[in-house]
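fwd from M.: "can u put these together and see what the complex looks like"

so here's what she sent:
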Amino acid sequence: EVQLVESGGGLVQPGGSLRLSCTASGFTFSTYEMNWVRQAPGKGLEWISYIRSSGSTVYYADSVKGRFTISRDNAKNSVYLQMNSLRAEDTAVYYCVRGGESGSYSACWGQGTLVTVSS
Amino acid sequence: DIVMTQSPDSLAVSLGERATINCKSSQSVLVSSNNKNYLAWYQQRPGQPPKLLIYWASTRESGVPDRFSGSGSGTDFTLTISSLQAEDVAVYYCQQYYSTHYTFGQGTKLEIK
């Protein structure tokens, strides 16, 4: 069974930093693309970052580019999101998402971790 | 970025009736070399993470009931639920994965009439 378990969320002050982790199991992690998608309270889904299976290619949404960094450790079956210079508008549930077998659709989702940016 | 626009924003349908949700992209998400539309649909039930329903615009994910179907090509797509069940109450999202920024539609809230 595919499992994605996010951790690292919590309350942080504006301008602060947080590092999210996602640990995967139930599939060969090193062969899949991974993404982070967030959802602000009561709002829709926003894709924010992508990383290729090898880690060689990354993409970011304009809303987080220059502030967030995605990375992965295939030996640890984990993907990370380093979030710096956090703003109130970054408050959201952050989902770790695995790519599909045949394409870059969002095939499997974790339960999410809540990040709250507030003073 | 490719903008995805869903319609309607909300929809109320009677049990057993058909529900139709539309999704329009600001540019084509069809790759002519492989004739594939880079468009997926997701269901998000209250308090749950999203779940993949359809990819490549019309391929049903394993385990998804066959009352869910996807159609369309280029810039216009449709998710159809042929006979609405109570467990289909959810918000539905389309997403393009054609460009390197995988944008979602704003969501369509589906309720029982």
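replying to her w this: The longest strand of chain A covers residues 18-25.
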